[in-house]
Amino acid sequence: MSTGAPPIALAVIGGTGLYRLSGVEEIERVSLETPYGAPSGPVVLARLAGQRIAFLARHGEDHLLAPHRVNYRANLHALHVLGATRVVAVNAVGGIRADMGPRTLVVPHQLIDYTHGRASSYSDAEGTKVVHVDFTDPYAQALRLALIAAVRACPVLDCVADGVHGITQGPRLETAAEIARLRRDGCDLVGMTGMPEAVLARELGLEYACLAIVANWAAGCDTGEPISLEEIYRNMDAATARIPEILTKLIS
Questions:
Q1: Residue 54: inside a domain
Q2: Which residues, in sequence order, are bridge partners of residue 165?
Q3: C-alpha 140: how far from its chain's center?
Q4: Model confidence over 57-98: pLDDT tens digits?
Q5: What pairing do the DSSP bridges indicate for beta strands 189-191 and 86-95?
Q6: Radius of gyration over alpha carbons of the chain, in Å?
Q7: Buried/exposed 130-147: b ≥16 CB within 10 Å, e otherwise
Q8: CATH number where 144 lies
Q9: Residue 15 β-bridge partners
Q10: CB pairs under 8 A, 24+ apart, for 43-46?
């Protein structure tokens, strides 16, 4: 690992469809073991717009980790140890609200956690003091606003600047009845990886915001036709191609 290096301006966690960052100058690949086990893969240290960034593929670079098997604690701990203080999480989601169709970019302001059985706190470790963090607002407001401005500064792109992110267990997609329930609960979009990532970042004192890419309409929200995985990946490919441009605006 490099010593005396400049600080990391931003860490990025890539979700489905974002396993590598294009258009960046790769400096180093760092493989770490943490007190919580191994992260999903190496942390890629790179240079973008003259600044040092870190990138980690949440599901691994070959997408081998299902949402409930991601070692979220190790991932966040590795970024923290390397010096990251701001984290943008890129998440593939399904759209529920009418203005959240495929390829829409959303920066949610709230979340509801429907996951279970995941290691969801650093306080779970043996002998660790229990810390009750304030989670009233799960995303860092300053970073959210900067991310919204960065998306809107990119030609042709706009983003929905609010939304309640419902996080389900996966890896299966939801039933139409489950999506109807999420809608009644107040969810605007649905994904599988937003928790416990957000709260672990809060426990480590990291600024954390989510850039959600709508890959498809959630079950029952469009034509009622079966959801096509091919369409999901086409939508993700089109949207993730603009991620380096957005990140450049954000760190500039």
A1: yes
A2: 111, 189
A3: 13
A4: 999 998 999 999 999 999 999 999 999 999 999 999 999 999
A5: antiparallel
A6: 17
A7: eeeeeeeebbbeebbebb
A8: 3.40.50.1580
A9: none
A10: 43/78, 43/79, 43/82, 44/20, 45/2, 45/5, 45/8, 45/82, 46/21
Mention every residue, 6+ apart, whose C-beta is less than 8 A from residue 172. none
134-158: pLDDT as tens digits: 999 999 999 999 999 999 999 877 7
Whole-number Å distance between alpha carbons of 156 and 163: 21
Look at residue 36 and tell me if it is in a domain: yes
Q: Is 224 exposed, middle or buried (0-12, 13-18, 19+ CB in 10 A)?
A: exposed
Does residue 132 sit within a domain? no
pLDDT tens digit sequence for 155-197:
877 799 999 999 999 999 999 999 999 999 999 999 999 999 9
Range of the domain at 161: 8-122+139-251
Number of domains in the chain: 1
> By the 8 A CB rule, do 227 and 95 touch?
no
User: Own/partner pairs for 149-155, CB < 8 Å, 24+ apart?
Assistant: 149/249, 150/246, 150/247, 150/249, 150/250, 151/105, 151/107, 151/211, 151/246, 151/249, 153/249, 154/242, 154/245, 154/246, 154/249
Q: Please check whether residue 245 lies inside any domain of the structure.
A: yes
C-alpha 35: how far from chain center: 22
Helix orientation angle between 141-152 and 243-251, rounded to the nearest 10 degrees: 120
Residue 41 corresponds to which tokens in the numbers above?
Answer: 């893969």
